[in-house]
């Protein structure tokens, strides 16, 4: 291959570029990024960055020395519009084209938006650095009434940061409890209590009918007819993979770019990694997927066929109200949950999810060292649980979270 293009100047895109050079690719390397920023770390956006404990410079994932070593051509603030596999041509903004022999798709995912809120001031999402800058500016100054729609990781972390800044925060979650698909009802209930202990109000079991206000949001109307006054609304209802630009291409799409276990798409010269990739039937918005898939994907890309498989152990973490939640593995319906250290009453514990005598996942709240040991044990091939069939949908990268 003379030219390889990475579309997506993200965490996964950067790791793919690193792997290309590390695995001996010495041809032309092009990195296309829709955002104007160099690769940055997303997990702190909803936490330290939002609360003012980190600045933009601290989010940078690479420095000038590494950029020199990568010897890549960076096309930032440039959107990919299509891919012509037959012509090996990438279609870019303003009608530009880029001929490439190999393609790494790392376009990530975008925040899901609430219908009917376009143009209404005071309504925010939190996925990108620009999103975080806008929200941080809006939260500066006097205390405001903040309604967070969605009690997932992004919503919970954002609510936690808003509380720490002195704002009056209400979290609205349509499900009976937040995070049930990820943690199961028992542990989801434990984590939901963090909101109340942290100082935010949590409303569950009701959705949002509409946002009220002319020009700027003034309130949130719920499906049970309650109306929550709001100066600012944060919508955290998940993310959708950025695959629209690939419509009409030869690639198979379906909640992401469909890949085999080695991140290889229907075309051997095209691989996908990170949040946009549905690898072996699973799309995981996890930090570990973005950092571990590229090595395998690049190996297969350079080989021209699948010679290796990616099967990282799912792992994510989330910081909320002064507590660190860590989870590894994959919970399945019917798993039993056993607390093996600490207690849920103490708010610090380690628990195991078990199925037919085997550990399938581990969850810890403020137990980092025991969690690390349990995670390592879970990742060992000899103890790794077998594939028990489809698990729950993975959580969004808490901007992290590690996700």
Total number of β-strand segments? 25
What class would the helix/strand composition place it in? alpha/beta
Low-confidence stretches: 386-403
Radius of gyration from CA coordinates? 21 Å
Strand content: 25-35%
Shape: globular
Strand order of the main beta sheet, please?
Answer: 3-2-1-7-19
Task: Figure out the total of helices.
Answer: 8
Helix content: 10-25%
Q: What is the overall pLDDT average?
A: 91
Quaternary structure type = single chain
Largest β sheet strand count, sense and barrel closure:
5 strands, parallel
N-end to C-end Cα span: 33 Å
Verbal overview:
The chain is of the alpha/beta class. Helices cover 23% and strands 29% of the residues. It has eight helices and 25 strands. The strands form seven sheets. A five-stranded parallel beta sheet has the order 3-2-1-7-19. A five-stranded parallel beta sheet has the order 9-16-10-11-12, covered by helices on one side. β4 and β5 form a beta hairpin. It is globular, with a radius of gyration of 21 Å. The C terminus is likely disordered.
